[in-house]
Every structure is written in structure tokens, then in C-alpha cells.
Design a protein that fits this description.
Elements: H1 21-34, H2 38-56, E1 66-67, E2 80-87, E3 91-99, E4 107-114, H3 124-142, E5 151-156, E6 161-162, E7 170-171, H4 189-199, E8 203-209, H5 211-222, E9 226-232, E10 236-243, E11 260-264, H6 281-288, H7 299-302, H8 304-319, H9 343-351, H10 358-368, H11 374-406, E12 411-416, H12 418-422, H13 426-438, E13 448-452, H14 456-473, H15 483-487
Parallel strand pairs: 2-5, 5-8, 9-12, 12-13
Antiparallel strand pairs: 1-11, 2-3, 3-4, 6-7, 9-10, 10-11
Helix pairs in contact: 1-11, 2-11, 3-4, 5-14, 8-9, 8-11, 9-11, 11-13
Length: 496
């Protein structure tokens, strides 16, 4: 996504003076369908609260609300050396994190390895072999000449996985372009550990985590007011800490009612029943033509993967409307290609600092071979603002819903992801939506703040590995498959 350039106010309605009447009416129509007003924000938030609660019940609901077996926040007193592995769609990142005596501090060294495309459709053996080879390379390089104790590893596995224990995970389905036979529906940990053992790599997997849970824990390590971890990027998700007594679906475990447990919401699935989200006909098309229609309704309206596609569908629709006179007499073949624009395309338009929108004109000319006149440029600018604003305001509903459900009047929320970090005005628009939902007085400061998160898939994964070992040492084995095996060779010893 583009870097941040000069800023203009989020709305430039004052420059609509030279827009012809019919195009102005088109813009007004778009404003009416993409604007989410305060009453709608409140309605969505209240429904969201109910759906979060439903997801925790035995029957469940659309939002999976997955117990992660990460139990409790770090205290800042965690010490030791831990590895973190983050397996993304493009890269594999390996980090070694040292937690010193100093509270809330950490030192990190890391390496990135490219994830070869052919692995994504190869065999499971090839995949885990490659991952183990990268880990072996990392350990050999950073511990040259001396064989370390088995290093505890936190593995960020950001694919939908069911976890009955923190040190295992059954892959529900591949995402991010992976399509490897024989992995879905199975625990990914044994074949991964077998590949490490075969190579004699001194690593012991302590925790398999989701990047959102890692974001929550890493952010709480440096900020004790942190309550929620969020990802607003290609996709969207959130995690927060729930009391075990409020999770009916794990009643059979007989855990202490006040014991905390991080919940990976997987909230992209909110409102799959289409009860409350203000979907336009363009959202309906995106859903219908996606690989999994009827799923991830919330995500399809707010995540980076879809923002450019909503924008493209509107322009194609307006071009076919004789009343709009958009791109008249021009070849829109390139515009007709699905997902030809991403969120960075909209970000570039919103960041255009020039009154004549010359950067936007260049963008359309270079990417799509289209020449836009000034009124068309104004329409595209306004449309980008509307789509970007809607995404930010809807995102705030999820944050508000968790806070309302938990009765939190004040909270810090750690957010990561390309849309949060790079999309212009996203933070400010989300903050404004929270002000409206909670009806804070104008003079009041923001009581719930969404802030940039710490490194969840690196530091967060290592901290969760540390917390898991600490739990075993203290004799709390809930949600750990092999407590004694977890400590083998790591230099840690369970308390008798």
C-alpha cells in the first residue's frame, strides 16, 4: 500500500461546484447508500453484542468465538529466550525474542524466508520440510558452534484452526492461496514436529496461536490498559480476554469461573444472516462471486481485499447507466477485470493533495487507460471517501460491541494490519464512530482508543510460549495436551 503523503480534510464537498447536475445527483445517491449514520452504528453494535454472546454458547452462532487456551495476560516479569514462527502467504518469518529482567522490555532478532509458490500446492511433507529447514538455518546461524537447549516456539498459524489444546490445531480450511491435500481436518502439529525431529532441530513447539491473539498479548505486554487486539488488513479479526465462566461451550472442562481465556472471535463472519449490515447491491455481488458465498459478510464490507472491488463495481455500473455519462466513449476493458484495484488504489485517490486531482488522473490513465475529466475525478474522489469511511465506521462497531459486552467504559485497543496502518483517515474515522456510538460529550476525551499494536506474530507468539511454560510450571495444565513433553530439553522444570 502507498506511503502516507500530504493530508487534506476527509471531505472536499466544496469542490463540487463545477460538477454537472446529473453527476451531482449520482454522487448524492452514492452518499445515501454508503453513509452509515449514528442510529445505524448503534443498531449494528447492539446486534453484534448478541452475536458475540451466541458464539460462546454450546449451540454457537455465525461468529466462531474460538477459545485459544492462552490464559491470562503477561505480567512483564516473563524472562528467557523464545522463538516465534510466522507463516504468512508470502513469507516465513522467524524471530528469536529475549525477555530480560527489565519489566516490559524485549530484544528481537529476525530473518525472513520466501515462501515458494510451488509449495502452496505441493505436499504436506514438502511444506513442513521447508519450514523446518528455515528454522534449522536460523538456529545454526544465530547459535553457531553451540547446540542450545530446546528452544520453546510460539507458532503463529493464521489459518482457521480448531484448538482443544494450545499446543495443537486442526486446520479447518486453507486460505491465502494454499491448497495442499491431506492437511485440512487434521492436526498440523505432529507433521511439523516430525520434520523438526528428522533434522535434529532443537526446538519444542509450546503454543500454536492466531495473529490476533498475538496482537492482544504483545500489546498488553507494553500497555496494561490494552483490552482488545484487532487486525484491519486484507482480512479483519479481533481477540479479547473472557472469563471461563462466561464461555458455556467449555463448561465440560470444569475450569475456574474467573480464570481468563483469550477468545479469537473470527468476527469477519458477523451477520452472515444479513440481518443488520447495510449491504448495497455491490456488496451482494462481491459475496455472490466470492469463493465462499454467504460467509464472512462483515469482512467483505470492511477489509482491504474488498474495498477496491466495491469501488470498481460502482464505476462499472455507472458506466452502463446512460444518465451518469461516466467515461463516455472510452474502452473500460481493464476496469471490467475483477479485483484489478486494491485498497491502495483508493488510498492514493484519498491522498491526492492537488486541487485538480492530477495524481488521481495519472492513476486512472496509467492503471486503466482511462482519461477522466474534472467532474469524473470529483466523483471518484467522493466515492473513495465514502467506501473508506464506511469501512472505518463499521470496523468501530466490532470494537464497541466487545467493550459493551464486557462492560468496559475505558479501554485501549491494539490494532494492526495494512488498512489500519496505511489507509488515510481510517483511525480518525473509526474514533469518530466510537464517539457517536457511546455518545461521549464533546468535551470528553476518547475513553476507548484504538492504537497501533505491538508485533503480534513475533513478540506476541513468543510471550504466549513463555506464558504457557509458566502455567505448566505452576501446575495449571488446562488446555495443554502434553504438559511434561512441553518442557523436555527446554531447561524449564515443572513444579511437583
Amino acid at each position: 500500500m502507498v506511503g502516507l503523503g500530504p493530508r487534506k480534510p476527509p471531505s472536499r464537498k466544496g469542490s463540487m461546484a463545477d460538477v454537472p447536475k446529473d453527476l451531482l445527483q449520482t454522487i448524492q445517491h452514492l452518499e445515501s447508500i454508503f453513509t452509515v449514520d449514528t442510529s445505524k452504528l448503534t443498531e449494528i453494535t447492539d446486534h453484534f453484542v448478541k452475536e458475540l454472546e451466541k458464539g460462546l454458547t454450546k449451540e454457537g452462532g455465525s461468529i466462531p468465538m474460538i477459545p485459544t487456551w492462552c490464559m491470562g495476560f503477561p505480567t512483564g516479569d516473563e524472562t528467557g529466550t523464545f522463538l516465534a514462527l510466522d507463516m504468512g502467504g508470502t513469507n516465513l518469518r522467524v524471530c528469536e525474542i529475549h525477555l530480560p529482567e527489565a519489566k516490559g522490555e524485549f530484544e528481537i532478532i529476525q530473518s525472513k524466508y520466501r515462501m515458494p509458490e510451488e509449495l502452496k500446492s505441493g505436499t504436506a511433507e514438502e511444506l513442513w520440510g521447508y519450514v523446518a529447514d528455515c528454522l534449522q538455518q536460523f538456529v545454526d546461524y544465530h547459535h553457531e558452534g553451540k547446540k542450545p537447549d530446546a528452544l520453546p516456539l510460539g507458532f503463529t498459524f493464521s489459518y482457521p484452526a480448531t484448538q482443544d489444546y494450545i499446543d495443537h490445531g486442526v486446520l479447518q480450511r486453507w486460505t491465502k492461496g494454499f491448497d495442499i491435500d491431506g492437511v485440512e481436518g487434521k492436526d498440523v502439529v505432529p507433521p511439523f514436529e516430525a520434520a523438526l525431529k528428522e533434522r535434529g532441530v532443537p526446538i519444542k513447539l509450546s503454543a500454536l496461536i492466531n495473529d490476533t491473539t498475538g496482537t492482544l498479548i504483545a500489546s498488553a505486554y507494553t500497555d496494561p490498559r490494552m483490552r482488545i487486539g484487532c487486525i484491519f488488513g486484507t482480512g479483519c479479526n479481533a481477540a479479547y480476554m473472557e472469563k471461563c465462566g462466561s464461555i458455556p461451550k467449555i463448561d465440560h472442562m470444569n475450569l475456574p469461573a474467573d480464570m481468563p481465556m483469550a477468545i479469537n472471535c473470527e468476527w469477519g463472519a458477523f451477520d452472515n444472516e444479513h440481518v443488520v449490515l447495510p449491504r448495497t447491491k455491490y456488496d451482494v455481488i462481491i459475496d455472490k462471486e466470492s469463493p465462499r458465498p454467504g460467509q464472512q459478510s462483515f469482512e467483505k464490507m470492511i477489509a482491504g481485499l474488498y474495498l477496491g472491488e466495491v469501488f470498481r463495481l460502482v464505476l462499472v455500473d455507472l458506466h452502463s447507466d446512460p444518465a451518469a455519462h461516466l467515461f463516455e466513449g472510452q474502452d473500460i476493458t481493464k476496469l471490467k477485470k475483477a479485483y484489478t484495484m486494491d485498497a491502495s488504489f483508493l488510498a492514493t485517490i484519498e491522498e491526492d493533495p492537488f486541487e485538480n486531482l492530477s495524481e488521481t488522473a495519472d492513476l486512472f490513465q496509467n492503471k486503466l487507460g482511462l482519461r477522466l475529466n474534472k467532474p469524473e475525478l470529483e466523483l471518484c474522489r467522493r466515492l473513495a471517501e465514502l467506501i473508506g469511511t464506511r469501512a472505518a465506521r463499521l470496523s468501530a462497531c466490532g470494537v464497541a460491541a466487545i467493550c459493551k459486552k464486557q462492560g468496559w467504559k475505558e479501554a485501549h485497543v491494539g490494532a494492526d494490519g495494512s488498512v489500519f496502518n496505511k489507509y488515510p483517515h481510517f483511525k480518525a474515522r473509526g474514533a469518530q464512530a466510537l464517539r457517536e456510538i457511546f455518545d461521549w460529550a464533546k468535551s470528553q476525551k476518547d475513553l476507548i482508543e484504538i492504537l497501533p499494536a505491538e508485533d503480534g506474530s513475533g513478540v506476541g507468539a513468543a510471550l504466549i510460549a513463555a506464558l504457557t511454560l509458566k502455567r505448566v510450571e505452576e501446575g495449571n495444565h488446562a488446555g495443554i495436551r502434553d504438559p511434561q513433553g512441553l518442557l523436555e530439553g527446554t531447561g524449564h522444570h515443572a513444579k511437583k
